[in-house]
Design a protein that fits this description.
By secondary structure, the protein is mainly α. It contains 17 helices and 8 strands.
């Protein structure tokens, strides 16, 4: 996925958790291009359009704004032909924040043996293309493959909803209307450029499109015509443009060729957990002095300043993360997603599964419980910018401070036990 606002990138990662079947989805290796017909490719069964007079009035008003931004009347009318309010899109948007799973559950799906095997099959089938993309953009082919695998199960699940209809519904809804209206204008600009016909512009309910699920604004900024046919077509069965677009996205956001995203590490006995987290950066030499090694006990390779990440707290796996971790974050800000991309790429390349165990008995906090936890932290005087149910760096810092104040291991991990302690103290 593209660089999104925090809530939406998290939503996409959580949606992937809610669709475990994609881990075992078959991979189609037939790359014959589909006919470039104008026939709609939208899956009727996946749509729930309804008549909505206010929505129709909104379209009329939006048409004036779109034309003022350079969209031709002909393109607008062609793109909106048959578009209706889609209640199922709003339902998905309303419910996305309730999906909660632990990181190990996410990784069980995202980096399953089946997904690894499918990735290796895709690598064998598309090796020449992927190596050409790697040479052109200086981004490792396994990383591009991993994003492809997570975003669309290697092209087999790209989404079949009408993008114009989905984005228009979300823009009309007004909860995040300005964001989605900007995406809708961008989608119309893509159609106007001739890269895709309206009926072939399909994707997810939130506007993500193609093999690696670009949103329209990211498409305009980063999509590539790698086939050289005059169109940046990320929807074709042939994944060339989609995969090159992803490599270009990573390159343009600072990818360092030859640097890993991160490595699983072993922490020494007595490690100071206040040193963990993305905000603490040290040289590899400093981490070595503190006793941090690779998971198999070898000296850490030096790939520059880095942080120690504990996605499941002190009881779970630990990783040293480098600058490329943050480049993948530009695609999707959720730590679970970044780790999944990095680890899946490593596995496709022949690497080992994560070695450390996870605290699998720990139940995930619900969205409401996370908000309650944040309120309690703020009430007890710990700095809390937002009560939004998202456990980001600020919330982790507050959790760590609370844990230290009561003599607990300050690993910053949000658990049901932590919530109980907050309720009691």
């Amino acid at each position: 996925m593209r660089r999104l606002t925090g809530w939406l990138s998290l939503a996409f990662a959580l949606m992937a958790l809610a669709v475990p079947s994609l881990a075992n989805a078959p991979v189609s290796l037939d790359i014959r291009p589909k006919p470039r017909s104008g026939a709609p490719q939208v899956q009727a069964a996946a749509r729930a359009p309804t008549s909505n007079a206010r929505f129709d009035l909104w379209i009329k008003a939006f048409r004036k704004r779109a034309l003022a931004k350079g969209i031709s009347a002909q393109v607008f009318d062609r793109a909106f032909r048959g578009v209706r309010y889609n209640a199922s899109v709003i339902e998905k948007d309303r419910n996305q924040s309730e999906f909660t799973k632990q990181i190990w559950e996410y990784l069980d799906t995202a980096t399953s043996d089946m997904r690894v095997r499918n990735g290796r099959d895709a690598l064998r089938k598309h090796r020449a293309l992927l190596e050409q993309i790697e040479r052109s953009y200086k981004v490792e082919k396994e990383v591009v493959l991993a994003i492809w695998g997570l975003e669309s199960a290697y092209g087999s699940h790209m989404g079949k909803l009408n993008i114009i209809e989905s984005l228009a519904t979300l823009a009309y809804d007004s909860r995040r209307g300005s964001f989605f209206e900007a995406q809708l204008i961008a989608a119309l600009q893509i159609i106007q450029s001739g890269d895709v016909r309206p009926g072939n512009m399909t994707g997810s309910w939130a506007g993500a499109m193609g093999h690696t699920q670009f949103i329209p604004t990211s498409y305009l900024a980063f999509a590539q015509d790698f086939r050289g046919d005059g169109r940046r077509d990320i929807w074709e069965d042939d994944p060339a443009d989609g995969l090159a677009s992803t490599a270009n996205y990573l390159k343009r956001h600072g990818w360092t060729y030859g640097q890993p995203w991160g490595l699983e590490v072993a922490l020494p006995r007595g490690f100071d957990f206040k040193l963990s987290g993305e905000r603490v950066k040290k040289s590899v030499a400093d981490w070595r002095k503190l006793g941090v090694t690779t998971i198999d006990g070898k000296p850490l390779p030096d790939h520059g300043r880095s942080s120690i990440l504990l996605p499941a707290g002190a009881a779970g796996a630990a990783f040293i993360i480098f600058d490329n971790f943050h480049v993948i974050e530009r695609y999707n800000t959720a730590d679970a997603y970044v780790i999944a991309v990095g680890h899946l790429g490593d596995r496709i390349a022949g690497g080992k599964p994560i070695q450390h165990s996870w605290p699998r008995g720990e139940k995930a906090l619900s969205f409401k419980q996370k908000k309650q936890m944040q309120r309690l932290l703020r009430r007890k005087g710990f700095e809390m910018e937002k009560i939004d149910g998202i456990v980001g760096p600020n919330t982790i810092a507050a959790i760590r401070a609370f844990q230290a104040s009561i003599g607990k291991t300050p690993d910053g991990y949000a658990t049901t036990d932590l919530l109980k302690l907050l309720q009691q103290n």
